[in-house]
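residues and backbone:
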Amino acid sequence: IVFMLVRARTLILLSSLLAVAPLGAQQTPGLTPADSVFAVLAGAQRTKISRAQLEANLATIEQVLASPGYSGALKEARRAEAALIRRRLEEGDLNAGDAIAVQVLGDMRMTQIYYVTPRRTILIPGISEEVSVAGLLRSELEPYLTAEISKYVRNATVRVEPLLRISIFGAVGRAGFFLVAASKPLPDILMDQAGGPAPNAEPKRGAVYRGDREVLPGEALEEAIREARTIDALNLQAGDRIEIGAKPTRSLVGTIFGGLGAVAGLVFVITRTF
């Protein structure tokens, strides 16, 4: 009986492990050739964080860091966020390789996805000179490009959505590299492009990395998912890596011995009773 109980429990455990096996090998690009600028813009939110909002957020964070009433973990998360905000304010958001979806109503030549050059410019058909995007925040891009395009297109109506390529790994259904809209909430990205969280996902055990450097600790990542914050609001940039943490799992050997212990305890209780 003991052997049958342990064997059944082992089979159940193996089945559950196979059911949540990571799909890291299945990588999908963020946008296929069939995707259009219109599809990108239709799925994007209009609101992006402004320079004034970033400055206000930075002032609030500095108050938190100066106060003795907050935990060390919270201060660590806010300190990392402050560093990201300062970088955005000083350098802007657009870097070489970033993508920008632009729709110009009535002009299909200009309606396309542009890639930022190493000079931090974009090349727009019909405009003789390269258009610089250096130092701009994502929220400043649409009014700026509207003004530039309006020099060549009368009464231009322009919609703009910055895109950036990030990677998502860890406890998700489909790990890989994705080209995402900056104004898209992180939970939507996890569900729509990364296949959703795995059953054992625990974001606070993960982090966001820029190269080898952690830029957002697990607590901040968990908060961002819970509050449905956008990529833009998280101050992320192209190349950042999101690691979704996982709950620690018991080893198969530990589970088997745990099952044996439970059965032995049951046998002891039965023998004591009868």
